[in-house]
Amino acid sequence: MPAAALSHWRDFRNIVLFTGAGLSAESGVPTYRGAGGIWREYNYQDYACQRAFDRDPVQVLDFHELRRAKALNCAPHAGHAHIRAMQAGHPGVHVITQNIDGLLQRAGVAVAAELHGSLWRLRCPVHGMREDLAAGAFAHRRCPDCVPDRAPWLRPDITWFEDAVNEAVFEHAAMLVDDAELFVGIGTSGAVWPAAGFAERARRRGARMVEINPEDNEASALYGEHIRLPASKALPEAFPIGG
Ligand code: APR
Question: Which residue owns the Cα nearest ligand 1 atom 35?
């Protein structure tokens, strides 16, 4: 689809940008399933599920500390900046993301829903959420507010495989998707549910469906239009700001 076809994008009252790991790829953060993907190198059952955490919390925390350190060394790219500029000029641009790397937030984007949590938060089973932005803070942490000899390990506030999702976050995202007149899937394979269900939900509600992804994937059939370009190039072309 010629990206120019969306030059009137501001006419849509509510727009949902649904982002996946592909949006961060050009910043140097590895995706999950493509070439060089994280799940091609690591078995999630050893590093990214509660059973693995219960079995070997240090191995799981070290894995996530490695990902945090990598994400800290990556910078948001022109695509992230473009999303921020879209939001600055249009109150109805809502971002729901599957990404946990925080790059959207570092680019100044208002993120309405972090569907899979964040590498930048920890939580205690007793005390709940703790913000924790420093590097090196994940490793081998037990809750400092719990009784020392019984302090549980702090776990990353990430929705791992086999975890229940955060219902409140998903309900908020669903409300935005239900109002969307334009739904743009950016850099996602649509492989993981229930997040992947938002594209079908938007399509059923009659939203205009646009996919930004250099490759075809299992969710592509849900979209009526496809921009087969990397996000940093596709976003400024499809959603011009100036003029
Ligand atoms: N621009 C746009 N899309 C890109 C780019 C790019 N520069 N580079 C790669 N892609 C696309 C790939 O073609 C692929 O379809 O991004 C997609 C990334 O797919 P995944 O690696 O499966 O990532 P994602 O869809 O976000 O995974 C969903 O799976 O493991 C879980 O919780 C994790 O949130 C994640 C979820």
Answer: 98
Query: Is the model's pTM score more than 0.90?
Result: yes
Does one domain contain both 178 and 209?
A: yes
Distance 238 CA to ligand 1 centre (A): 20
Considering the domain architecture, whether residues 111 and 229 belong to the same structural domain is answered as yes
Give Cα 74 distance to the centre of its chain.
15
C-beta 68 within 6 A of ligand 1? no
193 with 152, same domain: the answer is: no
pLDDT-based confidence at residue 6 (cuts at 50, 70, 90): confident
* The ligand 1 atom nearest the CA atom of 99: 34
Active site residue 77: no
Pairing mode of beta strands 117-124, 155-158 = antiparallel
Angstrom distance (rounded) from CA 187 to CA 154: 30
pLDDT digits 0-9 by tens, 63-93: 998 898 899 899 999 999 999 999 999 999 9
